[in-house]
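Q: Mind making up any chain with structure tokens?
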Amino acid sequence: MAADIPPTMLAIHTAEEVSWPAVPPIETLVRDYHAFLWRSVRRLGVPAGDVDDAVQELFLIAHRRHSEIVPGKERAFLFAVAVGVAANARRKHQRRDNRLDHGADPAAAPMVATQDHALLARDRRAMLDAVLDDLDDEFRVPFVLFELEEVPVTEIAELLQIPSGTVASRLRRARELFQAAAARLRARVAREDAR
């Protein structure tokens, strides 16, 4: 009887029987993507003390929306959730800072020059955070992915669901903005050191 079925119909019938890969369980997603997402959330401006909570929230959202994840697109889905969670965490932190603000700008505090490697690394991290905070998400997200996470432009385009040319354009502009913000920060630190 199979001889009576045209080859194209047989191919269609066979394709219908093929099972597509399933999205891995949330435990696997946590194991495979936790480190990347933790770094991403931190570099997207979530204060250090809030990163663990933000990543936990991210995976809770992924668990609730697990059925919406397209197989093979897990990283893109999780990163999109990370961008939203990071934005919410920054807003929450900003509101908290506004309530607690005593007129002091922690980013304006002079950096303590020290030989201690841990303190130096912390100061450099604070400077990087300050410069990244000057970037809008439109530029910050591709900049963080490309420059800090070393994700290729084509994958960034897929993660953000925008054309590669747009990613390249945003990266160029992000580098310009980053350099300008870094120059302002260096000048401010130099002025404070001169006092």
